[in-house]
Amino acid sequence: MKTWSNQLIIGLALTAGLTACTKFLEVDVKGKATIPSFLSDPQGLNAALVGTYNKMYAYVDNEFTKYGDVAGNMVSMPSAASSGDMVAQYNFTSDESQITGAVGYIWRKIYVAQANANNIIEYGPAVAESYPASREACDRIIGQALLIRAICHFDQCRAYAQPYNYTADASHLGVPILLRTPGANDTPSRATVKEVYAAVLADLERAATLLTDAVALDCHYGSLQAVRCMQARVSLYMEDWQQALSYARQAIAEQPLAQGNSYLAMFDDLSQQGEAIFRLSGSKMNGYLKSFYDNSCMPADTLLSLFDADDLRLRLLRTTTGAKRCRKYSATKVPDNESKRDDPFIFRLSEMYLTAAEAACQLGQYAEARQYIRAIIERAVGADKADDVMDATLDAQLLQLVRRERVKELCFEGHNFFDLTRWKLDLVRERSTTSSMKYMAYPSDYFVLPLPQDELNANTSMQPNPTVNSGTSGGGTVEDGTLKIEH
């Protein structure tokens, strides 16, 4: 059975200059046979890692990050018409036949990145054994591949499955767990979300034994600090508050937040690391986020209304003339003057402060939560205003403050929609939204993407998502922008 999960990616996507196979999942036996020889020494292993990062970049710097924004309630697409980039996701009209849009591309591109990581994880240990002098370098490569595979499983699960807390025991359908590249006759099925998260955490645990840099020295490569960030993020989604707080503390590693111009510079000058822990390099790549946020997607009034007039972060949401515009991908200082380059963030320190604050609130550790959230607010509006905000916020109101600051701090970085669903909040958009979907109550079958129809056609073991995949149980109508689910 030929499925997207066994598309040949195997040798074709190992190096930076090669592109993913777009044929419908044809396994190239000859290409597959070359993998052991290609991945037989440290140089080949390192080249494979570069290719794997590039394949991860392909989904992060395009549809996946966009989806986390446009499906939420903090962006506006004024020129949205009946068709166009991400308009279906903005209107919640995603169709399983959209194999060249977000529905198909997110699924496919994540599998491509996963398969490349799988090859490194499979063949890397033998290389380390054969080249003992390079064992440490090989271990670092394998550790980074494990981190990437964990992120891929997690991101695919976020897009195509309901959040972890959707059912009490997370027994609802997730995505396939692929710890090796499937063969031509394999027909992987969907694991439960609980099983997917367990696999993610297992990869992260193993990665933590292979990576030693508790503070990232180069943010364009996965580090032990990035592993801790991912463990904190996964634990947050699982509502394992103690683990989320513990891992966030480790990720923070007593590092202060970037301040003032240094904070702004990490968005404007791609040679500046700032508080970045892990961001993907767009060197020699065609970035897609800059153009999208320059021309199609901008801050909604609901987002802008959350900010104080002198909030530092507003400088990333308005042009010098005051027009609404996301400027997080509009760097003016780019290495080698690559005009289309984006370096999207996977993890930065601010997220870990917010994770620690949210988890501490949930644990009733309000003093610690206040320390973390105050640092975020003080950086944005100054010490005096931060004191005023904290003094006016009761412990019972603190979690809401943390959530509001998270929305402001991480906007346009692909978090908004996924935060709404894990918080079990209704989707409520600004009155002037151009989307046909103005309100949607939680829970909803529409809070996930449909599985691509080509995958379902080719793999009879792959289960569809209710309602959003045509012909499945459930149904819905839209009246005055409000989705009404028919059970």
Output the radius of gyration: 22 Å
Number of strands: 8
N-to-C SSE string, H for helix and E for strand: HHHEHHHHHHHEHEHEHHHHHEEHEE
Distinct helical segment count: 18
> Strand order of the main beta sheet, please?
1-3
Shape: globular
- Could you say which structural class the secondary elements and strand pairing correspond to? mainly alpha
Rounded mean pLDDT score: 90
End-to-end Cα distance = 34 Å
Helix content: 40-55%
Query: Low-confidence parts, pLDDT < 50 over ≥5 residues?
Result: 1-31, 473-487
Main sheet, how many strands, which sense, barrel? 2 strands, antiparallel
Residue share in β-strands: 5-15%
What would you note in describing this structure?
- Helix 5 (102-130) packs antiparallel against helix 6 (135-160), helix 6 (135-160) runs antiparallel to helix 7 (193-210) and helix 8 runs antiparallel to helix 9 (241-252).
- This protein is globular.
- It has helices spanning 29-33, 35-38, 42-70, 87-91, 102-130, 135-160, 193-210, 224-238, 241-252, 260-268, 289-295, 301-304, 349-362, 366-381, 383-392, 395-410, 416-422, 453-458, and strands spanning 75-76, 276-279, 298-299, 345-348, 427-428, 439-440, 475-479, 482-486.
- The chain is built from 18 helices and eight strands.
- The chain is 48% helix and 5% strand.
- It has 487 residues and is mainly alpha-helical.
Topology:
Blueprint: H1 29-33, H2 35-38, H3 42-70, E1 75-76, H4 87-91, H5 102-130, H6 135-160, H7 193-210, H8 224-238, H9 241-252, H10 260-268, E2 276-279, H11 289-295, E3 298-299, H12 301-304, E4 345-348, H13 349-362, H14 366-381, H15 383-392, H16 395-410, H17 416-422, E5 427-428, E6 439-440, H18 453-458, E7 475-479, E8 482-486
Antiparallel strand pairs: 1-3, 2-4, 5-6, 7-8
